[in-house]
Amino acid sequence: MLRAGNGIFRGNFVLVFLASLMMFTAFYILLPTLPVFLNRKLNIAEGETGLILAVYTLAALLIRPFSGYMIDRYGRKLFFIPSLLLFALMFAAYPFTGAFMLMLMVRFTHGLIWGVATTTGSTLIVDIVPPERRGEGIGLYGLAMTIPMALGPFAGLHLTQNNNYTLMFICAGALAFAGFLLTLPIRYPVVPHAVKPAFSWSNLLESTALPVTFNLLLINISYGGLVSFISLYSLKTGIGYTGIFFIVFAGGITIARIYMGKIFDRHGPQALSIAGILLLATGHMLLGLMVNARGFLIAAFILGLGTGIVFPVFQAMVNNLAPAGRRGAANSTLFSGLDLGIGLGMLLTGYLAHSIGLPTTYLMFSGLNLFALFYFLFISLTHYHRHLGAGNSE
Fold it and tell me: N or C: which end of the chain has fewer CB within 10 A?
């Protein structure tokens, strides 16, 4: 049994948590500010701006299967430390990219590094946490992604209030570099029974993770439509409160992640997943039916709770199914489904918003989440119980 470090709340766990927290905060600093920088400072058209934003996710999606295979073959340390260093250094390139193609190249490269860093960090935390506390560990580690959802955009908007985008890039890079420094004292566990297979396309994905990954893909179609178009929804409906929406949304995720891990470790994924997916369906339904400030913020909290439950539960499921030497592939498979779902959600929501309007689109996504619930009950959950323990060695 793998028991690296000194427990969930000390030692290696804290170092990986804080390093990831700083990396994600740096990422979220750019989320609301980069489109404005591209449009106002570089005079890049909105269509080209959308491509620059999308290529980051595309790069992460392309690299994840390869990064999962490589960290399984050569270890986590060889990729976690350099990826965070390169992630931090890339921020220095942004102020010097004055043309569309240069910025496209920078974003694509940054997305590749992001895909490696996030896959490796998520796999490393599973190595560190004792198996019987895996749900708790994954849930708490997820706060390193959730807290920056509130802090990062606020910091980015504050840093650029005087149009000083260079200062923003410097601060984001410095924060990411501090995260890199925290990776150096980590004691990287040696994964037992790790296999070193020759490269093949079949090794890039973990077969035991595929049903749950497709389930997450379905759910994240609605998530992609939510995070990318909720500001436009707020603007077109005249509700406002977009910044408060994300704070309430992040609050819901935080509350869910604090408690869901222990429930998973004691009772498994069934009740949690049903509750989480139903919360997502309910939240999207409220956005479609209750088009006012009260419904907007209630939906934000409910959607946050559902999001905070579903992803860590699914991540714990795929890591419980995968052999220890294939956890990198399992996590990269799951994150690929996450990225693809978000990308499809952005594209689908853009089309539907133009044809039927955003409230009706969110109502449709409520139905999509109900379909994802049936898929979970009859496919994902059955697969999980059938394969649990069949090949998962610690």
Answer: N
